[in-house]
Amino acid sequence: MYKLNLPEIDSKNMSTKDKIVMILSHTWPLNTKKIYNTLKKKAPSVTLTYQAVHKSIKELLEANVIVKEDEGYRINAKWIDSLKKFVDEVKDEYKGIGMSAEKMIKELETKESITLKFGTVEEAYDWWVEIEETVFANEGYNMCKHDAYPFVLRHMLHKKQDAGRIKLWYQVLGGSGKVDAWCSEQYNKSGSHSTYGIKEAENYWALLIIGDYVIHDFIDETIKKQIFELFEKIEDPADFDAKKFYELIRKPTTYIAQITKNHEIAEMYKKKILSYLKKARKIN
Questions:
Q1: Among 109, 113, 155, 173, whose CB has the most other CB atoms within 10 angstroms?
Q2: CATH code for position 63
Q3: What H or E segment, with its residue span, contains residue 186?
């Protein structure tokens, strides 16, 4: 794949092809003459010939980096996507995730389960959103002791209120405090279905079922205890210490997600969650 270097456009170290891509990233479409004139203007100290520019454009076309339109050339959107995918995979490797959601789906075509490791709780939360956006499902199922999502995650971590594709959630919380009641109420108000105070759910940090994917998360006991204590001391949801919460989820820890793709197992968990919601009269 053609690789883009990003020094200053006037640099002698930047190839002609890189310069062309840089120009087309700001202005498009441009024909060969306009590209040549722009290069001469932006890189006056670099010797360029029209023939060299024409040759570089041809090579970029052959590499599918750019495409030709009636009015001139522009960068190929598919090439941009391939760069984004490459950058995302490198970012995941450096964060310790080691696998994007898209790559995970491909891996599970030949494997029954995989295990991923995260360096912080926040990294895992961001990855959950990526899963929502990659695994096309209309609904999700969740079983956990406490849920901070209605408080701050949707706004602070996901940057926008409509992050993620899944709008309908079936949720069972293990906690029975005022904060759990409030969180459950927020889900129900949004059109999803939630209940709280279910003893079995106390055993889970997070169990997510999306389609046929079962995601079972495990976290270091020290961080888990500190986060749970943050929830369990709250008397009024308005007193939630968001600053302390973010300090904890950004603290280095051991966080493991076990992902299994199995229709029967997924259906078993879905039925269990739905049975608790029916008992609580949250669904018919």
A1: 173
A2: 1.10.10.10
A3: helix 178-189
Instruction: Judge if 102 and 52 occupy the same domain.
Output: no
> Is position 163 within any domain?
yes
Contact residues for 194 (Cβ-Cβ < 8 A; gap 6+): 169, 170, 171, 172, 173, 183, 184, 185, 187, 188, 277, 282
Based on the fold, state whether residues 105 and 66 are members of the same structural domain: no
| Averaged pLDDT of the chain | 83
Q: How many CB atoms lie within 10 A of CB 161?
A: 7
CA distance 129 to 133: 6
Query: Whole-angstrom Cα distance, residue 177 to residue 146?
Result: 10
Q: How far apart are CA 31 and CA 127, in angstroms?
A: 41
Residue 217 CA, distance from chain mean position: 16
- Contact (CB, 8 A) for 30 and 70: no
Residue 156 lies in a domain: yes
Taking only the tens place, the pLDDT of each residue in 69-82 is: 989 999 999 999 88
Residue range of the domain that includes 32: 16-75
Instruction: DSSP for 71-136, please give it.
Output: TEEEE-HHHHHHHHHHHHHHHHHHHT----HHHHHHHTTT-SEEEEEESSHHHHHHHHHHHHHHS-
Provide CB contacts within 8 A for 241, sequence distance 6+.
Answer: 230
pLDDT in tens, 224-262: 999 999 888 888 877 888 888 889 999 999 999 999 999
Helix (H, G, I), strand (E, B) or coil at 208: strand
Q: How many domains does one find in the chain?
A: 2
Phi, psi at 109, each rounded to 5°? -75, -25
Residues 21 and 138 both lie in one domain: no
